[in-house]
Amino acid sequence: MSSGIPGAPVGGLALPAGFENLAEHGVLLDVVTTALERVEHELSEAVTNTDQLADHTSRHLLEAGGKRIRPLLTILSSLLGEPGVGTGQVGEVAAEVRSAAVVMELTHLATLYHDDVMDEAPVRRGAPAAHQVWGNSVAILAGDLIFARASLLMATLGPEAVAIQARTFERLVMGQLWETVGPEEQDDHLEHYLRVIGGKTGSLIASAGRLGAHFGGCDETTVRILDDYGEKVGMAFQLADDVIDLTSTSHASGKTPGTDLKERVPTLPVLLLRQAAPADATAAAVLELVDGPLDTDEQLAAAVAAVSAHPVIEQAWDITRGWAADAVEALAPLPASPVKSALVAFADYVVDRDN
Protein backbone atom coordinates (compact mmCIF):
# COMPACT_ATOMS: atom_id res chain seq x y z
CA MET A 1 0.00 0.00 0.00
CA SER A 2 1.33 3.41 -0.90
CA SER A 3 2.30 5.76 1.92
CA GLY A 4 0.27 8.56 0.40
CA ILE A 5 3.20 10.99 0.53
CA PRO A 6 2.56 13.43 -2.32
CA GLY A 7 5.07 13.99 -5.09
CA ALA A 8 6.66 11.99 -7.85
CA PRO A 9 6.33 8.23 -7.35
CA VAL A 10 9.56 6.53 -6.30
CA GLY A 11 9.86 2.80 -5.68
CA GLY A 12 6.12 2.38 -5.13
CA LEU A 13 5.95 5.40 -2.82
CA ALA A 14 5.89 9.10 -3.55
CA LEU A 15 8.33 11.56 -2.02
CA PRO A 16 7.79 15.33 -1.84
CA ALA A 17 8.96 17.39 -4.79
CA GLY A 18 12.39 18.88 -4.19
CA PHE A 19 14.13 15.67 -3.16
CA GLU A 20 16.29 15.65 -6.27
CA ASN A 21 19.36 15.54 -4.04
CA LEU A 22 18.31 12.08 -2.95
CA ALA A 23 17.83 11.04 -6.57
CA GLU A 24 21.46 11.98 -7.16
CA HIS A 25 22.44 9.40 -4.55
CA GLY A 26 20.69 6.21 -5.57
CA VAL A 27 21.61 4.26 -2.44
CA LEU A 28 20.25 6.99 -0.16
CA LEU A 29 17.02 7.19 -2.13
CA ASP A 30 16.59 3.45 -1.94
CA VAL A 31 17.20 3.49 1.82
CA VAL A 32 14.49 6.11 2.39
CA THR A 33 11.85 4.52 0.17
CA THR A 34 12.55 1.01 1.48
CA ALA A 35 12.24 2.25 5.06
CA LEU A 36 8.95 4.02 4.28
CA GLU A 37 7.57 0.88 2.68
CA ARG A 38 8.50 -1.14 5.76
CA VAL A 39 6.98 1.48 8.04
CA GLU A 40 3.73 1.25 6.09
CA HIS A 41 3.67 -2.51 6.59
CA GLU A 42 4.51 -2.13 10.28
CA LEU A 43 1.71 0.44 10.69
CA SER A 44 -0.76 -2.08 9.35
CA GLU A 45 0.57 -4.76 11.70
CA ALA A 46 0.43 -2.39 14.68
CA VAL A 47 -3.32 -1.77 14.36
CA THR A 48 -4.26 -5.38 13.57
CA ASN A 49 -6.81 -6.71 16.04
CA THR A 50 -8.62 -10.05 16.30
CA ASP A 51 -11.79 -8.18 17.25
CA GLN A 52 -13.48 -7.25 13.98
CA LEU A 53 -14.89 -3.90 15.10
CA ALA A 54 -11.61 -2.82 16.69
CA ASP A 55 -9.72 -3.86 13.57
CA HIS A 56 -12.05 -2.03 11.17
CA THR A 57 -12.18 1.18 13.18
CA SER A 58 -8.41 1.25 13.77
CA ARG A 59 -7.70 0.80 10.06
CA HIS A 60 -10.25 3.37 8.92
CA LEU A 61 -7.97 6.41 8.76
CA LEU A 62 -4.77 4.47 8.18
CA GLU A 63 -6.12 3.02 4.95
CA ALA A 64 -7.57 6.39 3.88
CA GLY A 65 -3.97 7.49 3.22
CA GLY A 66 -2.13 10.52 4.57
CA LYS A 67 1.08 12.37 3.92
CA ARG A 68 3.18 10.34 6.41
CA ILE A 69 5.35 13.39 7.06
CA ARG A 70 6.16 12.27 10.61
CA PRO A 71 7.59 8.90 9.57
CA LEU A 72 9.47 10.56 6.72
CA LEU A 73 11.05 13.10 9.06
CA THR A 74 11.93 10.36 11.56
CA ILE A 75 13.74 8.41 8.85
CA LEU A 76 15.53 11.42 7.35
CA SER A 77 16.68 12.61 10.78
CA SER A 78 18.10 9.18 11.60
CA LEU A 79 20.26 9.23 8.47
CA LEU A 80 22.23 12.19 9.81
CA GLY A 81 23.91 9.71 12.16
CA GLU A 82 25.18 7.53 9.31
CA PRO A 83 28.98 7.68 8.71
CA GLY A 84 28.51 7.81 4.93
CA VAL A 85 25.88 10.53 4.92
CA GLY A 86 28.18 12.99 3.12
CA THR A 87 28.38 10.76 0.06
CA GLY A 88 24.92 9.24 0.22
CA GLN A 89 26.41 5.84 1.06
CA VAL A 90 24.31 4.80 4.04
CA GLY A 91 23.14 1.55 5.55
CA GLU A 92 19.68 0.23 6.22
CA VAL A 93 17.45 2.23 8.54
CA ALA A 94 17.52 0.60 11.99
CA ALA A 95 14.49 -1.25 13.32
CA GLU A 96 14.35 1.15 16.27
CA VAL A 97 14.05 4.10 13.90
CA ARG A 98 11.22 2.42 12.00
CA SER A 99 9.45 1.65 15.28
CA ALA A 100 9.76 5.29 16.33
CA ALA A 101 8.37 6.34 12.94
CA VAL A 102 5.40 4.01 13.41
CA VAL A 103 4.74 5.40 16.89
CA MET A 104 4.77 8.96 15.60
CA GLU A 105 2.21 8.15 12.91
CA LEU A 106 0.01 6.09 15.23
CA THR A 107 -0.03 8.91 17.78
CA HIS A 108 -1.01 11.35 15.04
CA LEU A 109 -3.78 9.01 13.84
CA ALA A 110 -5.15 8.65 17.37
CA THR A 111 -5.46 12.40 17.74
CA LEU A 112 -7.35 12.66 14.44
CA TYR A 113 -10.11 10.38 15.73
CA HIS A 114 -10.50 12.58 18.78
CA ASP A 115 -10.21 15.87 16.88
CA ASP A 116 -12.90 14.88 14.41
CA VAL A 117 -15.33 14.11 17.23
CA MET A 118 -14.62 17.40 18.99
CA ASP A 119 -14.81 19.41 15.76
CA GLU A 120 -17.78 17.43 14.39
CA ALA A 121 -15.82 17.08 11.16
CA PRO A 122 -17.74 15.13 8.49
CA VAL A 123 -14.77 14.10 6.35
CA ARG A 124 -11.15 13.14 6.91
CA ARG A 125 -8.71 12.29 4.11
CA GLY A 126 -11.55 12.12 1.60
CA ALA A 127 -13.45 9.51 3.62
CA PRO A 128 -16.24 9.86 6.18
CA ALA A 129 -14.82 10.64 9.61
CA ALA A 130 -14.93 7.63 11.95
CA HIS A 131 -17.61 9.14 14.18
CA GLN A 132 -19.85 9.51 11.12
CA VAL A 133 -19.59 5.76 10.54
CA TRP A 134 -19.59 4.32 14.09
CA GLY A 135 -20.65 7.21 16.33
CA ASN A 136 -18.73 9.40 18.76
CA SER A 137 -18.11 6.83 21.49
CA VAL A 138 -16.64 4.20 19.18
CA ALA A 139 -14.51 6.79 17.38
CA ILE A 140 -13.06 8.02 20.69
CA LEU A 141 -12.35 4.46 21.80
CA ALA A 142 -10.69 3.69 18.46
CA GLY A 143 -8.37 6.63 19.00
CA ASP A 144 -7.62 5.39 22.52
CA LEU A 145 -6.89 1.91 21.17
CA ILE A 146 -4.47 3.23 18.56
CA PHE A 147 -2.66 5.28 21.18
CA ALA A 148 -2.43 2.18 23.38
CA ARG A 149 -0.77 0.29 20.52
CA ALA A 150 1.62 3.21 20.01
CA SER A 151 2.51 3.14 23.72
CA LEU A 152 3.16 -0.60 23.68
CA LEU A 153 5.53 -0.21 20.75
CA MET A 154 7.27 2.78 22.32
CA ALA A 155 7.84 0.76 25.49
CA THR A 156 10.13 -1.54 23.48
CA LEU A 157 12.39 1.44 22.74
CA GLY A 158 13.29 2.20 26.35
CA PRO A 159 12.39 4.65 29.13
CA GLU A 160 13.78 7.76 27.42
CA ALA A 161 11.58 7.16 24.37
CA VAL A 162 8.57 6.57 26.60
CA ALA A 163 9.27 9.86 28.42
CA ILE A 164 9.51 11.71 25.11
CA GLN A 165 6.18 10.24 24.02
CA ALA A 166 4.55 11.14 27.35
CA ARG A 167 5.76 14.74 27.19
CA THR A 168 4.63 14.96 23.58
CA PHE A 169 1.18 13.62 24.39
CA GLU A 170 0.91 16.11 27.26
CA ARG A 171 1.60 18.94 24.82
CA LEU A 172 -0.91 17.51 22.35
CA VAL A 173 -3.61 17.45 25.03
CA MET A 174 -2.74 20.93 26.28
CA GLY A 175 -2.91 22.28 22.74
CA GLN A 176 -6.36 20.77 22.33
CA LEU A 177 -7.42 22.12 25.74
CA TRP A 178 -6.27 25.65 24.86
CA GLU A 179 -8.13 25.45 21.56
CA THR A 180 -11.27 24.17 23.26
CA VAL A 181 -11.46 26.87 25.96
CA GLY A 182 -10.17 29.65 23.70
CA PRO A 183 -8.05 32.66 24.66
CA GLU A 184 -8.67 34.56 27.87
CA GLU A 185 -9.75 38.18 27.70
CA GLN A 186 -6.23 39.55 28.12
CA ASP A 187 -4.65 37.17 25.60
CA ASP A 188 -3.51 38.13 22.13
CA HIS A 189 -5.61 35.83 19.93
CA LEU A 190 -2.87 35.21 17.37
CA GLU A 191 -0.31 34.36 20.06
CA HIS A 192 -2.85 32.03 21.64
CA TYR A 193 -3.42 30.29 18.33
CA LEU A 194 0.31 29.83 17.74
CA ARG A 195 0.56 28.25 21.19
CA VAL A 196 -2.32 25.91 20.28
CA ILE A 197 -0.71 24.67 17.08
CA GLY A 198 2.66 24.39 18.80
CA GLY A 199 1.00 21.90 21.12
CA LYS A 200 -1.24 20.13 18.62
CA THR A 201 1.12 19.94 15.64
CA GLY A 202 4.61 21.25 16.41
CA SER A 203 5.15 18.92 19.38
CA LEU A 204 4.72 15.66 17.49
CA ILE A 205 6.76 16.69 14.47
CA ALA A 206 9.50 17.91 16.81
CA SER A 207 9.50 14.50 18.49
CA ALA A 208 9.73 12.80 15.10
CA GLY A 209 12.94 14.71 14.43
CA ARG A 210 14.29 14.11 17.93
CA LEU A 211 13.57 10.37 18.00
CA GLY A 212 14.91 9.83 14.49
CA ALA A 213 18.18 11.56 15.31
CA HIS A 214 18.44 9.78 18.68
CA PHE A 215 17.90 6.26 17.35
CA GLY A 216 20.00 7.05 14.30
CA GLY A 217 23.00 7.49 16.60
CA CYS A 218 23.38 11.26 16.29
CA ASP A 219 25.15 13.28 18.97
CA GLU A 220 23.07 15.26 21.45
CA THR A 221 23.65 18.55 19.64
CA THR A 222 22.22 17.13 16.44
CA VAL A 223 19.28 15.64 18.35
CA ARG A 224 18.45 19.08 19.76
CA ILE A 225 18.80 20.67 16.32
CA LEU A 226 16.33 18.20 14.82
CA ASP A 227 13.90 18.78 17.67
CA ASP A 228 14.02 22.54 17.04
CA TYR A 229 13.79 22.06 13.29
CA GLY A 230 10.80 19.72 13.66
CA GLU A 231 8.94 22.15 15.90
CA LYS A 232 9.31 24.95 13.36
CA VAL A 233 8.45 22.73 10.41
CA GLY A 234 5.35 21.63 12.32
CA MET A 235 4.29 25.23 12.81
CA ALA A 236 4.77 25.95 9.11
CA PHE A 237 2.87 22.79 8.18
CA GLN A 238 -0.21 23.68 10.23
CA LEU A 239 -0.22 27.33 9.20
CA ALA A 240 -0.04 26.23 5.57
CA ASP A 241 -3.05 23.99 6.25
CA ASP A 242 -4.95 27.09 7.41
CA VAL A 243 -4.40 28.77 4.06
CA ILE A 244 -4.85 25.63 1.97
CA ASP A 245 -8.25 25.10 3.62
CA LEU A 246 -9.35 28.31 1.90
CA THR A 247 -7.46 28.12 -1.37
CA SER A 248 -7.40 24.46 -2.43
CA THR A 249 -10.02 22.50 -4.30
CA SER A 250 -11.94 19.69 -2.64
CA HIS A 251 -10.29 17.26 -5.06
CA ALA A 252 -6.79 18.31 -4.00
CA SER A 253 -7.32 18.48 -0.24
CA GLY A 254 -9.80 15.67 0.34
CA LYS A 255 -12.16 17.99 2.20
CA THR A 256 -14.52 20.81 1.33
CA PRO A 257 -12.78 24.20 1.11
CA GLY A 258 -13.69 26.35 4.07
CA THR A 259 -14.17 23.46 6.48
CA ASP A 260 -12.42 25.45 9.22
CA LEU A 261 -14.73 28.42 8.57
CA LYS A 262 -17.82 26.24 8.74
CA GLU A 263 -16.65 24.65 11.99
CA ARG A 264 -15.82 28.12 13.41
CA VAL A 265 -12.20 27.13 13.97
CA PRO A 266 -10.05 30.26 14.41
CA THR A 267 -7.22 29.99 11.91
CA LEU A 268 -4.47 32.30 10.73
CA PRO A 269 -6.28 34.10 7.84
CA VAL A 270 -9.36 34.83 9.98
CA LEU A 271 -7.26 35.98 12.92
CA LEU A 272 -5.41 38.34 10.59
CA LEU A 273 -8.75 39.61 9.29
CA ARG A 274 -9.85 40.38 12.84
CA GLN A 275 -6.63 42.28 13.45
CA ALA A 276 -7.14 44.31 10.26
CA ALA A 277 -10.89 44.93 10.56
CA PRO A 278 -10.85 48.02 12.83
CA ALA A 279 -8.91 49.99 10.19
CA ASP A 280 -9.91 48.07 7.06
CA ALA A 281 -13.50 48.28 5.87
CA THR A 282 -12.94 45.48 3.37
CA ALA A 283 -11.72 43.15 6.12
CA ALA A 284 -14.73 44.09 8.22
CA ALA A 285 -17.06 43.26 5.33
CA VAL A 286 -15.39 39.89 4.84
CA LEU A 287 -15.79 39.15 8.55
CA GLU A 288 -19.52 39.78 8.27
CA LEU A 289 -19.69 36.84 5.86
CA VAL A 290 -17.36 34.71 8.00
CA ASP A 291 -19.32 35.40 11.19
CA GLY A 292 -22.69 35.12 9.49
CA PRO A 293 -24.64 31.94 8.72
CA LEU A 294 -22.64 29.28 6.88
CA ASP A 295 -25.35 26.66 6.69
CA THR A 296 -25.62 26.38 2.92
CA ASP A 297 -23.01 25.61 0.27
CA GLU A 298 -23.62 29.04 -1.23
CA GLN A 299 -23.02 30.87 2.05
CA LEU A 300 -19.81 28.94 2.70
CA ALA A 301 -18.55 29.44 -0.86
CA ALA A 302 -19.16 33.20 -0.62
CA ALA A 303 -17.22 33.43 2.65
CA VAL A 304 -14.35 31.34 1.28
CA ALA A 305 -14.14 33.46 -1.87
CA ALA A 306 -14.14 36.69 0.14
CA VAL A 307 -11.35 35.58 2.48
CA SER A 308 -9.32 34.13 -0.38
CA ALA A 309 -9.47 37.41 -2.28
CA HIS A 310 -8.30 39.52 0.66
CA PRO A 311 -4.60 40.46 1.12
CA VAL A 312 -4.54 38.60 4.47
CA ILE A 313 -3.98 35.42 2.46
CA GLU A 314 -0.60 36.63 1.24
CA GLN A 315 0.17 37.91 4.73
CA ALA A 316 -0.63 34.44 6.07
CA TRP A 317 1.68 32.86 3.50
CA ASP A 318 4.46 35.27 4.51
CA ILE A 319 4.13 34.22 8.16
CA THR A 320 4.06 30.56 7.16
CA ARG A 321 7.15 30.88 4.97
CA GLY A 322 8.86 32.64 7.86
CA TRP A 323 8.44 29.56 10.07
CA ALA A 324 9.78 27.34 7.28
CA ALA A 325 12.77 29.65 6.84
CA ASP A 326 13.41 29.50 10.60
CA ALA A 327 13.36 25.70 10.37
CA VAL A 328 15.98 25.76 7.63
CA GLU A 329 18.07 28.20 9.67
CA ALA A 330 18.00 25.75 12.59
CA LEU A 331 19.90 23.29 10.38
CA ALA A 332 22.77 25.74 9.79
CA PRO A 333 25.20 24.12 12.26
CA LEU A 334 24.97 20.77 10.45
CA PRO A 335 27.58 19.99 7.80
CA ALA A 336 26.48 19.90 4.17
CA SER A 337 25.13 16.51 3.08
CA PRO A 338 22.41 15.04 0.87
CA VAL A 339 20.27 14.45 3.96
CA LYS A 340 20.60 18.05 5.11
CA SER A 341 19.56 19.14 1.61
CA ALA A 342 16.57 16.80 1.82
CA LEU A 343 15.58 18.36 5.15
CA VAL A 344 15.74 21.82 3.55
CA ALA A 345 13.52 20.52 0.72
CA PHE A 346 11.16 19.06 3.34
CA ALA A 347 10.71 22.49 4.93
CA ASP A 348 10.03 23.99 1.51
CA TYR A 349 7.55 21.25 0.71
CA VAL A 350 5.32 21.86 3.73
CA VAL A 351 4.53 25.36 2.46
CA ASP A 352 4.62 24.71 -1.29
CA ARG A 353 2.18 21.76 -1.34
CA ASP A 354 -1.41 22.19 -2.51
CA ASN A 355 -3.06 19.77 -0.06
From TrEMBL:
It is an enzyme of class 2 (transferase). Its cofactor is Mg(2+). GO terms for molecular function: transferase activity. Its EC number is 2.5.1.-. Keywords: Magnesium, Metal-binding, Transferase. PROSITE patterns: POLYPRENYL_SYNTHASE_2. The keyword Coiled coil does not apply. SUPFAM superfamilies: Terpenoid synthases (SSF48576). Pfam families: polyprenyl_synt. Belongs to the FPP/GGPP synthase family. This is Polyprenyl synthetase family protein. It comes from Citricoccus parietis.
